[in-house]
Amino acid sequence: xxxxxxxxxxxxxxxxxxxxxxxxxxxxxxxxxxxxxxxxxxxxxxxxxxxxxxxxxxxxxxxxxxxxxxxxxxxxxxxxxxxxxxxxxxxxxxxxxxxxxxxxxxxxxxxxxxxxxxxxxxxxxxxxxxxxxxxxxxxxxxxxxxxxxxxxxxxxxxxxxxxxxxxxxxxxxxxxxxxxxxxxxxxxxxxxxxxxxxxxxxxxxxxxxxxxxxxxxxxxxxxxxxxxxxxxxxxxxxxxxxxxxxxxxxxxxxxxxxxxxxxxxxxxxxxxxxxxxxxxxxxxx
Length: 285
What we know:
Layout: E1 19-20, H1 24-41, E2 48-53, E3 60-63, E4 69-71, H2 73-78, E5 86-91, H3 94-107, E6 113-117, H4 124-130, E7 140-146, H5 156-162, E8 167-173, H6 177-181, H7 183-186, H8 193-198, H9 203-212, H10 217-231, E9 243-246, E10 253-260, H11 264-275
Parallel strand pairs: 1-3, 2-5, 2-7, 5-6, 7-8
Antiparallel strand pairs: 3-4, 8-10, 9-10
């Protein structure tokens, strides 16, 4: 049995390294497992596999309160045994993007990587143009990881546009502490944050009913998002199939990690991630 991808400590290279909470380690572990399952499992079934990261960051992160440095999601994806055929990294911060370019160039010079600066929501046409064309003779499957900073950072119209391709999504639904803390702000009729997040404003009527059933706001938003993905022909995802990540210190809900695919095989991979997603488990790749 091969152990799960370890949370490997990285030496400080002096480049931009954003701080993250210690709970990010669990997120990166789960992402690493799915990256490996997807890239290897789809290798002989699709001619071209594309990895897309809409909030790529700097490539390395530093755990707050320590000197530990970990690989971020783009370098995790580049480090899989069966590398994706193409990578597309979007990043809004110029400092992060400069560091990411340098790290990719130094560590993975032979990889086919495209960098897109700026807000991913404003650069959808560019992202789509970077994805190789799908045809009967060249089948292209993309896997898109979305890790926004707050609820509403990723607009649903962006996901809708990307979903026109053959694409699976792993999305960090930032509906835990952010939505709970800002519930009054986000539910204000004049605030469009959740409208952008869900792609509609009809959620307010359903939220009124959910309040009567004492459904937590974070659970309501996660379920609403899954229903919106269903309108894009993605298979239904119940709340219990989303991984809820909590803080280490106060056990506060931070976000739900949700996987969406139009095919059952993707969910079989995700079930394995949920089953073997702890450091103590072993998994045969």
